[in-house]
Amino acid sequence: MNIALVHFTASPIVGGVERVMDEHARVFSAHGHRVTVLCHRGGGPDAVRLPDEKSPDALASALLPLLAQQDIVFLHNVLTMPFHPALTEALWHAMDGLPRVRFVAWVHDVAACNPDYAPVAPIFAKAHPRCGYFVVSPLRARQFAEATGAQAAVIPNGIDPARVLGLPENVAAFAKQRGLLDGRIVLLHPTRIVRRKNVEMSIAVAREFVRRGTPATVLVTAADDPHNAVSRALGEKLRSECAADEGVIFIGDHFAVGDAELAALYRLADALFFPSRSEGFGLPLLEAAMHRLPVFCSDIEPLRDLLREGAVRFSPDAEPASVVALIEETLAASPAFRERRRVLRECSWEAIYTRHLAALLR
Question: In the prediction, which pLDDT does 240 show?
Fold first, then answer.
């Protein structure tokens, strides 16, 4: 399907509408549609500049051949905001003259209900009969109805979690491939593969989540110790034992974990999991604190001295079932965790596309 997205400006010009346009273009393209961005200013190298005409009739004549190539045209705010009245009037003419093309007004703002823009021309307080109107919130739906007397369906905006989290491309691609942004519990165990790090506990905890039917993944950075031949043998043994386990991932087997990747994994994770049997210090606890992550760690010295409050401790020999119960209970009591999980499940652009946009494009 050929889709045009129309707004006064486009990225890299910064703004909320510009960001949503970017995401619409990305998600539509990802689902096989051909997307064209039309704007007066901004836009990437593939954007089409709207004609620089002041006359509504001349602008409409210039727009018609551009819009006639489209199956559906999304009009972001251009019908309800008075930033280019000639463009708004020209689009009204274009909608009358292109009966084969579907037009969708994506209403982020309603100038007719905002005293900052009073008074506005009558064209901004009415709805074109050939255009479908969609608003981004129930508030805007009420304001649109008040201004125009017409009804508009609500389709909320969303986010791209990988973009919001600032994940490098390799981490973002891996996270999407392995479903790490679907709202599951994600635990991060940053460690080398040595016996005292108790990677066996991470594997056992991952299996316990699976047994309980709880969507969860334990990420083990899993660097072999270059100073220790026993480490390499242990790594091979652990990998072979859990090769079929979907709940644990040895990250180092998929990409090199440098500083940027490690920081991204902290942002991706819901909590630090650190079940060591012994430590000389325990840097990951301090790193987790900087990322505002909950910490689940062994009740050993010196870990119990690093964080003065907030860490949830357990014996490194504890039963995996009791550790998982502790993790689930602690996270379930956190409003921040609950909202993060809900946002990932309901508010990603993929979720918005599946629930709303796909049907709109049929």
Answer: 80
